[in-house]
Design brief:
heterotrimer, A alpha/beta, B mainly alpha, C mainly alpha, B: mainly alpha, 17 helices, globular, C: Cytochrome-c3 Hydrogenase, chain B, 3-stranded antiparallel sheet, 49% helix, 12% strand
Chain lengths: 214, 422, 386
């Protein structure tokens, strides 16, 4: 119990410590601040006494501001799954993912995608595709990662590709295609990448693919 | 190692020893003895005192060792000895072998490691013998679509051409295999074969990486032949003769040419590095870019022959540098007139020749070390920088020194009855 | 220089066109495959027009072992030995990131001395990996001395790591909860001695390699990755820092005790091959500095590990943590469903992200630049394949 409290205090204390060295980052010009929320990240309010492990603490104000901006722009098309210090998870539908990603890149400053991957949920008959988006050029967003996810139907998973928005997902989407079977529409070269040429089995990261002997 | 001990059978061991003895006897009796008799009966032997040297006398020379001295003296002056042993193939191959070993040790010391250490008790000096045996026993793999006549002929041609170049180098006064009047031009002519062989071999390999390597070899060697020749020509201007022995003698008469022509020596050195395809100019064999360049498809003894040819070329170019710039065999005579005072037998010991051989070997070895040095220091050059250097910069530099040489001759400083001629 | 979009279009057009139709006579296809001294466990196909490369198509997957799938069959502690196999000599960093993510998920607090030892082991591993990278860079350019010297100096740090963890590579040292065992006696003094000797050696490296005119001619101005392209392509690590963006996760998102260490992020603005080869060297110098500070500030005694129950499990949820490894940002996205075995582990490695820059940088350069550019991207094939 007390370890939970300490761990949450550690997590809450991290944004202030992260803000310190960030301000001291040398020789990078600060871009003009256009955020609706004032710039320095305030300390997150400490957790309440002895919380049960499942409950999320009060989300920090800066990330809350980012999430609110997205919701203000897109309304019902996006759903915020969790807001934690320097991590936000945003879910949207396959039809609007390109628009949301373009808005995140152009207006909110998340200029590259770190990776694209997926998780298989056979119980809900869905495959969740998620992109980790980060920023290299905005000083206040350097540590933030937005996890942009969408859910595709497991029987025929088709999701529009984000390659026109973030060129860096080229190889990641190919890998997700061969590992989970998700077809990314609009990707110029949807082929197998890591698996051998004679792979004749189902996509390996699906839950019904069992490793032999286990 | 436990498996060897387990399957040891004494009977098999004795059987294998007997098998070995049987084969030694067969080879001696069917091959060795006839050879000895052919030599004794058909090769004209010198007279020993008053009587002719009969085979009986020859075979009993172990009783009277002084009988071997005239035979040795006679043999030393035959042509066969010159070609095969002393200034010819064996001497060059010995230099090549010592060079390979010294290169590995020298580089290892520069790179803070040991080099060969185990084969042979002292610092692994027998490593070369082990490597030679390994290469002989390896399987020679020829690609199916390769052009077989050229594939077999090219390595042999490579070694022969390198040995032919070694035949022109004078080691001591009077000791040269082929003493021709246009010695230097003959050396250049022989060296012009090498790009052809590289290209033929790479084409015959019928594979992409050797193809790229062969083209690179062609470009590189041709680009550096011109500064090579021009820098040697400035030496000819000072010496007045193309004969290599004559060049050495004119240096003995004045001073070493490296003092008058330092830039030419430098250009000659760089061009030699390029001709030899040594680092930094080893693009034809660039390991990380084109696997092994034009020698990719070699294996076993073919690779061994090409390595031998490469190191023979190294000896030839180092010796040529010594002959052209460092005064050949000139140096103070350090051997005494009589090795054993009061010895009355026939002498095969000539102190002038021996000291000439000594100085020549020392200088050649020094120049070889200079050739080995860049391998520990610098990375590989790129082809466009290489061609730029060879065609522009080195030609200009070698012309500068040629004008200096002309000025020295016309100014009467060198040349016949010059100021500095002793 | 064409923009990124134009280069993308041209590369794709050329690739698809040449693969489907009969090749023109001018182009020669070379397979720089796994059996090539200049490629590692990786294959890329290049098409050359004379001496210029016009097309490059990477083909990884030769060492793909299904790390992510295997993680789902073992509990969080059993995952450590096989997770460090992708990069055997940087294993402390790849397990560091995993341990941080698991500690986030399960709410585990690592004791302070354990955090310091973790950071020291991570810095030692960074040196080991970067020296190996430097050695291979030397031999790719034909510089055999630059191959032997870093490989020999690497022994200094491998010796330290062997004293600390028991193994020369693949240490299995970082586990969720801390590190496996404490430092041996005399380790601190020995570490400081080795670092002092190593800093002298770094000066010699500069003399023989970075100041060598031939090396500079071969790498300066070659394959420039501009700042905008670097951001768009999403590269990471030293490749990013060589293009002018001072992004280091130890500064941006300090984990464990890195917020108590004072160091500067090393970066260069030119973005060519020389910058990409020089930034890891500067990182190594800075790393010596960091190690000294860590050794100073470390508490004298204390626990190094929080003991967990044998089959540790935590509440369902997910966590994403990143660590700065030798190649760049190494991130773990772990999804847990309340059982002791993770539901999904996604490893985001720096090598895989940097691979994207390879086709765009190689096109238009000479064949002789291929090893210089390829290895300057700090690409470790085994890690990219996982």
């Amino acid at each position: 119990m007390s370890s939970d409290k300490e761990e949450q205090k550690m997590k809450a204390a991290k944004p202030t410590k992260a803000a310190g060295p960030e301000k001291a980052a040398p020789e990078v010009a600060k871009p003009a601040e256009t955020k609706p929320v004032p710039a320095p990240k305030p300390a997150a309010p400490p957790a309440t006494a002895a919380p049960p492990a499942k409950q999320e603490p009060e989300p920090p104000a800066f990330e809350k501001g980012l999430a609110q901006e997205l919701v203000a722009k897109f309304g019902d098309a996006v759903k915020i799954l969790y807001i934690r210090p320097i991590r936000i998870k945003v879910e949207t539908g396959p039809s609007s993912i390109v628009e949301v990603a373009t808005y995140l890149r152009d207006s909110m400053g998340f200029d590259h995608a770190e990776s694209a991957s997926g998780t298989d949920y056979p119980k809900e008959n869905q495959i969740e595709v998620n992109y980790h988006l980060g920023s290299y050029t905005r000083d206040d967003l350097l540590a933030n990662i937005i996890v942009l996810t969408t859910k595709a139907n497991r029987d025929d998973p088709r999701v529009p590709s984000l390659i026109r928005v973030y060129p860096s997902v080229e190889y990641h989407e190919r890998e997700t295609y061969e590992m989970l079977g998700v077809y990314f529409e609009g990707h110029p070269r949807m082929e197998r990448f890591l698996l051998p040429e004679d792979w004749a089995d189902i996509p390996p990261l699906r839950k019904d693919f069992r490793i032999k002997g286990r | 190692m436990a498996s060897y001990i387990e399957s040891f059978r004494f009977g098999e061991f004795v059987g294998s020893v007997l098998w070995l003895v049987f084969w030694i006897l067969i080879i001696i009796s069917l091959v060795g003895l006839p050879l000895i008799f052919i030599v004794l009966f058909y090769v004209p032997l010198p007279p020993l005192g008053d009587e002719p040297l009969t085979p009986y006398l020859f075979l009993t020379m172990v009783v009277d060792p002084t009988r071997t001295v005239p035979i040795a003296k006679y043999l030393i002056h035959t042509d066969l000895f010159r070609v095969a042993a002393f200034p010819g193939f064996t001497y060059a191959a010995l230099f090549a072998a010592v060079t390979i070993f010294v290169e590995r040790k020298f580089l290892a010391k520069m790179q803070l490691r040991y080099g060969p250490l185990y084969v042979g008790k002292i610092e692994g000096w027998l490593q070369l013998a082990a490597d030679g045996l390994k290469l002989i026993s390896k399987e020679i793999i020829i690609p199916a679509a390769a052009d077989k006549p050229i594939f077999w002929a090219a390595p042999i041609a490579f070694v022969s051409v390198a040995a032919a170049a070694a035949a022109l180098i004078p080691v001591a006064p009077g000791w040269v295999v082929a003493d021709i009047d246009v010695g230097l031009v003959a050396v250049f002519a022989i060296f012009g074969f090498f790009p052809l062989i590289a290209l033929l071999f790479s084409w015959a390999s019928n594979s992409k990486y050797p193809f790229i390597g062969g083209l690179r070899a062609l470009h590189q060697i041709i680009a550096f032949e011109i500064p090579f020749i021009i820098s040697a020509l400035s030496v000819v201007i000072l010496a007045g003769t193309l004969n290599l022995t004559g060049i050495v003698e004119s240096q003995i008469a004045s001073y070493w040419f490296v003092f008058f022509l330092p830039i030419s020596a430098f250009v000659f050195y760089l061009s030699s590095l390029a001709e030899l395809e040594r680092i930094p100019f080893d693009l034809p064999e660039a390991e990380s870019e084109i696997v092994a360049g034009w020698i990719t498809e070699t294996s076993g003894m073919i690779y061994g022959l090409i390595q031998l040819g490469t190191y023979l070329k190294l000896y030839v170019l180092a010796a040529l540098f010594v002959v052209l710039f460092l005064g050949g065999w000139s140096g103070p005579i350090i051997f005494p007139e009589e090795i054993i005072p009061g010895y009355t037998g026939e002498k095969i010991y000539n102190h002038v020749t021996l000291s000439a051989i000594f100085w020549f070997s020392v200088k050649t070895f020094g120049v070889i070390m200079l050739f080995l040095l860049p391998r520990g220091i610098s990375p590989r050059i790129r082809i466009d920088i290489l061609l730029h250097t060879g065609w522009y910069k080195l030609i200009v530099l070698s012309f500068i020194n040629m004008f200096v040489a002309l000025a020295l001759i016309y100014g009467g400083i060198l040349g016949p009855e010059g100021l500095l001629v002793r | 220089m064409a923009t990124l979009e134009e280069k993308i279009e041209e590369t794709r057009k050329l690739g698809l066109q040449v693969v489907k139709e009969i090749e023109e006579d001018r182009l020669m296809t070379l397979s720089v495959g796994p059996q090539h001294p200049g490629s590692g466990h990786f294959r890329f196909t290049i098409k050359v027009d004379g001496d210029y490369i016009v097309y490059c198509d990477p083909d990884p997957g030769y060492v793909h072992r299904g790390e992510e799938k295997m993680c789902e069959y073992r509990n969080v502690i059993q995952n450590i030995p096989h997770l460090e196999r992708p990069v055997i000599h940087d294993s402390n960093n790849i397990t560091y990131s995993y341990s941080l993510a698991v500690e986030d998920l399960m709410g585990i607090q690592v004791p302070r001395r354990g955090q310091f030892i973790r950071a020291i082991a991570s810095e030692l591993n960074r040196q080991v990996y970067t020296l190996y990278w430097l050695a291979i860079y030397g031999i790719f350019l034909g510089h055999s001395t630059m191959f032997m010297w870093p490989a020999g100096d690497r022994e200094l740090f491998i010796d330290l790591l062997e004293r600390l963890t028991g193994a020369r590579v693949t240490h299995a040292y970082n586990i969720p909860g801390g590190v496996r065992n404490d430092m041996p006696e005399g380790f601190k003094q020995r570490c400081l001695d080795h670092i002092r000797y190593f800093e002298k050696r770094l000066k010699e490296y500069e003399d023989i390699f970075y100041n060598m005119p031939l090396f500079r001619q071969r790498t300066e101005g070659v394959a420039v990755l501009s700042k905008e392209d670097a951001v768009k392509l999403g590269v990471t690590g030293s490749v990013l820092r060589a293009s002018g963006i001072p992004y280091d996760i130890r500064k941006v998102e300090p984990y464990d005790v890195y917020n108590e260490v004072d160091f500067k992020v090393q970066y260069m603005k030119t973005g060519d091959s020389f910058a990409r080869s020089y930034v890891p060297f500067l990182d190594m110098k800075e790393s010596c500095n960091i190690m000294r500070q860590l050794l100073d500030k470390m508490p004298e005694s204390g626990e190094v590990r929080t003991k967990l129950q044998p089959n540790p499990k935590g509440p369902p949820g997910e966590a994403y943590r990143r660590v700065e490894s030798g190649r760049g940002a190494l991130g773990y996205h772990i999804v847990s469903d309340g059982t002791p075995r993770p539901y999904r582990v996604k490893i985001s490695v720096g090598s895989f992200r940097n691979l994207l820059a390879l086709p765009y940088l190689l096109v238009g350069n000479k064949l002789a630049d291929m090893p210089a550019v390829y290895w300057s991207l700090n690409y470790w094939p085994v890690e990219a394949d996982r």
